[in-house]
Amino acid sequence: MELATRDLLRLATIGSVDDGKSTLIGRILVDTRQLFDDQLDAVAEASEKRGVGDLDLSFVTDGLRAEREQGITIDVAYRYATSPTRKFIIADCPGHVQYTGNMATGASTADLALVVLDVASGLKEQTRRHLCIAALLGVRSIIVAVNKMDAVDWSKLAFERVVDEIQALARDLDFTSVSIIPVSALLGDNVVESSVHFPWYDGPTVLEALESSEAGAWEHTTTRGARLPIQWVLRQSGGGRTYAGMVNGDTFHVGDRVTLLPANIETTITAMNFGGDEISEATVGLAADIALADETNAGRGDLIATAPLPSVVNELKTTICWFGEKPLVIGQRLKMKHTSKVTPVRVKLINGVIDIEKLDIDESTTLTTNDIGLATLQTADLLVVDDYRSNRVTGSFVLIDEATNATVAAGMVGHASFL
Amino acid sequence: MTTTTLPTSTTTDHLDLLESHAIFILREVVAECERPVLLFSGGKDSAVLLHLAVKAFAPQQLPFPVMHIDTGQNFPEVIDFRDATVERVGARLVVAKVQDTIDQGKVQDPGIMGSRNRLQTVTLLDAINDNNFDAAFGGARRDEDKARAKERILSFRDTFGQWDPRKQRPELWQIYQGKVNPGESVRAFPLSDWTELDVWQYIQREQMALPAIYFAHDRDVVMRDGMYLAVGPFVEPRDSETVERLSVRFRTVGDANCTGAVKSHAATLEAIIDEVALANVSERGATRADDKFSETAMEDRKREGYF
Fold first, then answer.
1. Distance set, CA B288 to CA A45, B223, B228, B257, B285 (Å)
2. Which of B4, B10, B52, B172 is the best residue to mutate to test the A interface, defined by the most A CB atoms within 10 Å of its own CB?
3. CB within 8 Å: A102 and B168
4. Chain B environment of A396 (Cβ under 8 Å)
5. Which residues are CB-neighbours of A234 under 8 A, at least 6 positions away?
6. Residue from the list B170, B173, B201 with its beta carbon closest to the beta carbon of A102
7. Range with the lowest mean pLDDT among B203-207, B222-226, B242-246, B286-290?
8. pLDDT-based confidence at A72, cuts 50/70/90?
9. In CATH, what is the architecture of A226-305?
10. Residue-level pLDDT at B249
11. pLDDT grade, residue B294 (50/70/90)?
12. B88 CB contacts (<8 Å, ≥6 apart)?
């Protein structure tokens, strides 16, 4: 068997309740033969037990007891598929508004969003909301499966009505790559196998569209400059230390001039290792460790960077997805985790809440559960940040409740251009 | 001095990405938690996890101990492998015995032939409490089971060790947030995004050693509940059963009395990878009686605090 180098595509499925998201994922897995016989038997058995027909494909991903009982998706299910060209990590995200935090969890690492909607009902509020969150989280490519085409007699007219609606929203949200595909997840038309029902459609199937999309997008950055947030300091056997962390942005090379931040100390990379072996360069996504020429007291939470350098701040304008049960208010204290740094923060200002329907900002001085808004935060310690749109690693953070340690918000430095 | 040039991101083998991601998680949890531990069963997944942990902290020693929850119903080859591996990497081994939990009267003895699988949870939770561990690394993968497919990489457990699937912490980007209050803990699963095939390909690439029972060998087995069980101290043939001598191997390592063998002639890593790539029955479905009781067996055990 040939073990060719394969890309890894991370995708998140989004869409409204009952539009057929989980069924579409089930269909992809079944038709690409990713499911084992015993798993299919278990799905058939569960379907029969609940009187929902021979094979309810949504049971493939809705794995929790409550999900099967209520027929909804509560939390992200991760599934894995392999085609001849690449490996896929599929985050099947929940649709209900109360599970927005789970949806954002799935979308935050996605290269691409696979959107499922019912041709008869078009873009529901839920789907618009999720597309907006995906766009805010930096997803730039979408594949839209216009589902349940079998229920409208494979009507071109019905499909085109939905296409216009999607394209208008995609323009508003600045998506750069949009594929819109008529499908029946139930019957399998245009998912993996092409269909005889669409003589008027000559585009790709869902799988073909997935195979040709750009992978690795989420960790790529548009800013130049390499970044290594220090996670851990390793003592080397001959004395000396190296600084371990995951590289993002540009590549580090031995001999590069780098700056240690926030201390602002300029020095040079004298050596780099991976897993105890020396390497000469370290690229995005590599968990490397770096030795520096000058003695420093660098530690966890500091950052090694090449030019152009990130900003060093103690006050920042952010976009916040608030998941806390009680509203976020001005003056509130929380902890922030940004890269490997944890620091106390205070909400200086809430600059408004995003109206998902109109895509503009309403005045508000609080954020309630599942609101997305703009807030200015003050931090106790200096932070080393890039704008989220140019670097998803140094531009993202979570907020933590000081008493319960629960993660109560996801935040991004700066705000999206479409706002 | 050897200098290797690592591939660039666009040509990086997906195993490189999975490997670096797992190392990142290991370092992050060790930095955030006070007293981590790595759960090591001697199976292939925990062997990969330990291998990654060594890489994550090289050239230093592991900054945490490894712990084996010993049901007392192990394959001897696995215990040999456990001891040899722990010695080779210089780790401190903590063994928590299900027998001790039984002797303390905390759980009932199911008898020599009965399954101790579910009892392990009590031993595990006691050991976590007794040692004040606040983070436990496990080798679980999301492709193993539909409940695991739902679990976060850092999975929060309350003071009773329970997993509440309806109250998982949002886990965005690669920000892993492991802060807990005293008595609470996290389970960390750095291999979450690996599949069975990824694990085997990685073992081959890294030329790792594994317990001999993973490779095809001749063994006396009986067919019970649709699985071949190895005849031995924990599995005595019943009157209705016929002992067969077959070429078999094990796809997972669990207790000797509930882990099924599969018929196989795959005696090398290459042959195993070919076999795994073509398999039409899942790893747990083929070989684990413990998952066959109900449709949500894994979810129910995880809620109680299972691995």
1. 19, 13, 11, 10, 6
2. B172
3. yes
4. 172-173, 175
5. A241, A242, A243, A244, A289, B57, B58, B59, B60
6. B170
7. B286-290
8. low
9. Beta Barrel (2.40)
10. 92
11. low
12. none
What is the pTM for the complete model shown?
Answer: 0.87
- Looking at chain A, the number of H-run helices and the number of E-run strands are 7, 26
| Sign of the four-CA dihedral A301, A302, A308, A310 | positive
Domain ranges of chain B: 14-199+296-304, 208-291
Whether the ipTM is more than 0.90: the answer is: no
β-bridge pairing B135-137 and B36-39:
parallel
pLDDT digits (tens, 9 = 90+) for A279-318: 999 988 899 999 999 888 899 999 999 999 999 999 999 9
- Nearest-CA distance from A78 to chain B in Å? 5
Tokens of A18: 């009952």
CA distance B84 to chain A (A): 21
Q: Give the span between the Cα atoms of B154 and B24, in whole angstroms.
A: 13
**Within 10 A of B127 (CB to CB), how many other CB atoms are there?**
22
Round the average pLDDT of chain A to a whole number and report it.
Answer: 87
Quick one: which of A259, A205, A398 has its CA closest to B175? A398
Q: Do domains A226-305 and A311-413 have the same CATH topology?
A: yes
Q: Which stretch, A56-60, A160-164, A357-361, has highest mean pLDDT?
A: A160-164
Q: Is the pLDDT of residue A147 over 90?
A: yes
A212-245 pLDDT, tens digit per residue, is: 887 766 666 566 899 999 999 999 988 899 999 9
What is the C-alpha separation between A102 and A95, in angstroms, rounded? 9
Residues near A37 by Cβ (< 8 Å), separated by ≥ 6? B280, B281, B285
Chain Cα centroid distance, residue B288:
13
* Residue B180 near chain A (CB below 8 Å): yes
Query: CATH says A7-219 is which class?
Result: alpha beta
Distance CA A191, CA A196 (A): 13
CATH 3.90.1170.50 for domain B14-199+296-304: no
Strand partners, B248: B217, B263
Q: B40-53 pLDDT, tens per residue?
A: 999 999 999 999 99
- The CATH fold assigned to A311-413 is Elongation Factor Tu (Ef-tu); domain 3 (2.40.30)
Residue boundaries of the structural domains of chain A = 7-219, 226-305, 311-413
Are B215 and B272 spatial neighbours (Cβ–Cβ below 8 Å)? yes
Mean pLDDT across the stretch B79-106? 90
* pLDDT at residue A417, as a whole number: 74
